[in-house]
Amino acid sequence: MSARHKLLNIQEMQSGDTPFEVCEVQSCDEHPGKVVEFYCLDHSQPCCTSCATLSHRKCENVTSIQKAASGIKQSTKASGLSQKLREHVIHLDEIIDDRNKNLADVDNSTGEIKTRVADIKTKILKHLDRIEETLLTELTSTKKQVGIELKDEVDMLSSYSSAVKKWKTVIDSVLEHGSEQQCLLEINRIEPKISELEQEIEDLVKNIKSVKVALCPSSPITDFIRNTKSFGNIKIDKSSVCSLSFNLEIDKVDFRTGNINILQVIDVCKGAGSTSGIFVQNLLLFTIRGKNKVVKYDNGGQSLLTELALPGSPEDIAVVTHFKVAVSIPEHGICLINSDKMALLQTLRLPGIPVYGISFVNEELFIISHSSTLTWINLSSGQTINKRTTGSQSYFVLSLSQTDYMYSDSRTAVDYVVSNKKKFTYTNSEFKYPRGIGIDCMDNLYIASYSSGNIHQITNEGEFIRKISASTIGIVYPWTIRFATKSNKMVVTCGNFGKATICEFV
Which superfamily does CATH assign the domain made up of 25-70 to? Predict the structure, then answer.
């Protein structure tokens, strides 16, 4: 079966460094000696001449592979698949980090138990020597058992991560270097595998437990020699880690009618000014316009971890990749920052281009907005790819896919555009000076109405759901709205008083 396949050992696959070579000639999966020449639209399947004659002769929509593949590289389907694979890579990295941390915590806790056992041992004299040996044997055995289980989870997740990274490399490579036919064929090959992989990952994550090793000392210790026959038991505490699941609990949250709880109010700017915030992995990053810097908080917003000075006054912030964010600075352009090390990587100067709000389409393309202009910029070259003139007041923009985006078009309206055609315009009598736009994991849209002091929640068809008063979440003038990935948690910033509120839907 694998006579025509390139074989790699497991170590090469797990390293993620294996090269991908684009082959111009694509062989048929059913008939390896045949070249793919047709595509069945009825079954979404590539075919050779034998397939078209034998398996698809009754199908009404069989066309040439060249025609079927035309425009596929620029399609929402292709970019969506690349984005989905990118999200899976990020999510799997998060799970692996958590498992490795748990493994280290277990190792640390066993060391603490050993110290505690030694302290008690000195008070119980000779009788403790015998049962200490028994306990330490049990502890070592337990540690080994737990370590094996956690290592197995890490190895399994690493193999999944390697597979997803490989598929992403394939998709990105054919998008950049391959032909239309290759792009179509790779999409058809990889898409079915994603669903299967998602199910496997969901099944694995569902059973993941947070492991803790704890000591349960026997009582009474003071009467140990006379009454106690054992020192205690080693207990393994396993609890589900909900934050790592693939939306196992998110379906229970009613975003449209559920309550919104305030988790934390952060005085980012210390009393005045505007700020924009965003979730990055398990952290929060905010811009501080008045102090020319970006700051990083823990996920709960309780502790300021570090800050980075910038060459100008930052306005908006957006995620680029796993550990990279972009900050818009009107007088300088776009600053790329390593969010892990909080280091300035690059400044992309954009002379003559108005800069304020920023939203990423993909790793190579982003949209910036200001006043009455939307501009699409290539991240690598800084080249302008597209430009759109709006009514006015387009401070912020939200990219929804390769061709779909949303922006404020005036002081009282927001437009939703799909493939350069307006899908809808949203307006409301209590909707003035729209600013930041957010989207939750259920595709509900949120628009900050700065002057009206509220947030409008609407469907992705433009239908009004409800109005959320900014005062109920500790904000006066709502400025930006961002959701944590696959979460019911959002952060809302204030445009005047420099505050940010972390909330959750319940």
Answer: Classic Zinc Finger (3.30.160.60)
